[in-house]
């Protein structure tokens, strides 16, 4: 949460406390991007005999909704940065493996390896973490889903066709629009997870499925080229 959001929440708490204690009207001014342009919101809050807020609290509720939207956008952006870091790490790892298997001259190899290591260290210095609040049941469900994904990853390595079918069944199990058979065990576990966990798992499965589709497309194109050369 950024500094501006924290200040706004603190202002809301002060306003509510003041109104509850003194039953008075309030004036709240907020500025955006540090500019002189600002907007003021004024409202009278009325309380019943029991001291409970009765109406005209739209300003506070509206501001809280606005802050919640900003925070959710921040979480989404952080998730995307996490994914980007993973992709960059894989790319640098692949480059390192390619260098080790190449026939580069010793001097060139050492220079490229040094640059690759330097870039990797800079990437690893970027720490992005988004905590997902979970109940005990959600934590257990997420742990079970991770086990199934690990087993699926191992299955793909040993049985490509079987692994691809399983990926499709898992995707159908956690998608609103199913296009084929599902894995009911996986569906039961993924539905017990948080909405954030479900979105992340779907992204992983979509990524794996797209990788298979790209490989099959390249194989088909290569086969077609070979046929044309006959």
From TrEMBL:
<dbReference type="GO" id="GO:0000774">
    <property type="term" value="F:adenyl-nucleotide exchange factor activity"/>
</dbReference>
<dbReference type="InterPro" id="IPR037689">
    <property type="entry name" value="BAG2"/>
</dbReference>
<feature type="coiled-coil region">
    <location>
        <begin position="57"/>
        <end position="101"/>
    </location>
</feature>
<protein>
    <submittedName>
        <fullName>BAG2</fullName>
    </submittedName>
</protein>
<keyword id="KW-0175">Coiled coil</keyword>
<dbReference type="GO" id="GO:0051087">
    <property type="term" value="F:protein-folding chaperone binding"/>
</dbReference>
<dbReference type="GO" id="GO:0050821">
    <property type="term" value="P:protein stabilization"/>
</dbReference>
